[in-house]
Design a protein that fits this description.
321 residues; alpha+beta; Rossmann fold; Dihydrodipicolinate Reductase, domain 2; nine-stranded mixed beta sheet; two-stranded parallel ribbon; 11 strands; 22% strand
Amino acid sequence: MELQAEGSLLRYGIIGVGMMGREHQYNLAAIPGALVVAVADPDPGSRQQAVAVASALQLSRPAPPLEVMEAAQSRPEVLVQVGLEYRYIPAVAKLIEQVKIGSIGHVRMVSIREHRFPFLVKVNNWNRFNRNSGGTLVEKCCHFFDLMTLIVDSRPVRVMASGAQDINHLDEIYDGEVPDILDNAYVVVDYENGARGMLDLCMFAEGSRNEQEICVVGDKGKGEAFVPESIVRIGARDSGRAGVLTYEVHDKRVKYEGLHHGSSFLEHLEFAAAIKSHGEHPPTVGLEAGLMSVAVGVAAQLSIELGRFVALSEVLDRKRS
């Protein structure tokens, strides 16, 4: 897609230019005709680093931080896309495609395993405390709850979770406080259509071949995606183990792989296409998807705190009030 003509120039503002905000700068630099013209961040160091990145990439110099716009719902003419980039990881996207064309049949179970390294250091260590981030299952795992809901194609209704902080950050102290974020958990999500999802999270599992493993089982078969190996396996019940097909998945459109295997680049590419369509093709990841992904995470954190199932209605009613 070429966007080089002056009339086709896409001007971007980025709210929050910590590690991931600067990652988006690199992604946008790889998209023809995309230009970052403004950034906003309360941290002076992050703003300075964003300016340095812009200079290195020969992008326009960001303007000083601006006041956040009115809520998107009050501006229907403004296109909004929520940044749930895990949908766009090539192997995950291939698995979702196979689910949508019926290769697995009617989905009954989705399980996602993320076994990885601990949280990275962020600006002012904001991600070390639940009060700042909403908790690990909100800040980190909203992406996985989004995948579950997308694959199941139904509304989540209740959540049960068990988790703890057993290993990570216990020897760290910030302003006299020890971090309180979870480093491992199991989460079960029940859906309106009777399907269920499960997350297996461990953030002290550096000795893993894959960081994410996504498994979908339906009434006709099973599909799996492995990241970063970028492998997808699809098998039908009637053909058994011998009939399992294996694909190595790559997306030739990716010009910058970055931190998430090209998914952020593809996410921006899709949003640019939505803008250029002048409303004919709206962004596929809207505010409702973002709300539900976070709501499941909030319900999971509450479930651990309260020791019981938490209905999504409890969380959503709290947000509305």
